[in-house]
Amino acid sequence: xxxxxxxxxxxxxxxxxxxxxxxxxxxxxxxxxxxxxxxxxxxxxxxxxxxxxxxxxxxxxxxxxxxxxxxxxxxx
Amino acid sequence: xxxxxxxxxxxxxxxxxxxxxxxxxxxxxxxxxxxxxxxxxxxxxxxxxxxxxxxxxxxxxxxxxxxxxxxxxxxxxxxxxxxxxxxxxxxxxxxxxxxxxxxxxxxxxxxxxxxxxxxxxxxxxxxxxxxxxxxxxxxxxxxx
Lengths: 76, 144
What we know:
The complex is a heterodimer of chains A (about 80) and B (about 140). Chain A is about 70% helix and about 0% strand. The model of chain A has no long low-confidence stretch (mean pLDDT about 90). In chain A, α3 (about 25-35) packs across α6 (about 55-70). Chain A has about 80 residues and is mainly α. Chain B is elongated. Chain B is built from seven helices and no strands. At the A-B interface, α1, α2, α3 and α6 of A face α2, α4 and α7 of B.
């Protein structure tokens, strides 16, 4: 089964906390991702939400791009 | 420029909520990115007609390749299409088809329906949960 299709159709189920809860910790998630930490273990709900929410996925990609090109240097 | 001003206003309005769990710049960027991306998505769709009752499955059906390996996916898609018609409320069906089948951004759906992004996603989430439950009951999907 193509997980992308299943995620697109059905999302990731009960663990998906929704856009607002995802946005609440998106800064922490993005920094953890840039530090190459295990975000699946640290932020499982965010990972599940992003799998089924195109808008939040785009926002996350935008945030990561801004952080990679911004003046603030390496994430702590 | 207006987006930058609105992003600044949004950040200033949220300052009390900064807890230091990330860098301040990262925390501030996420509001700016949200403000700009919502505007860009809405602008990209501003000249496109959005009729929530006229969406189609065409693009999603095209996304499933015609290989033997994709048989399971085509069966899932067919089952979902049936269940969308038989189990969802009118509101859930409209949002699900718009967001999933027609790939209309939820910001745009929210704008066109006078709702919020969170509320639209909640409707989508509830529709997906109902579809999952029905697919599990029908043996198309394993229970979580």
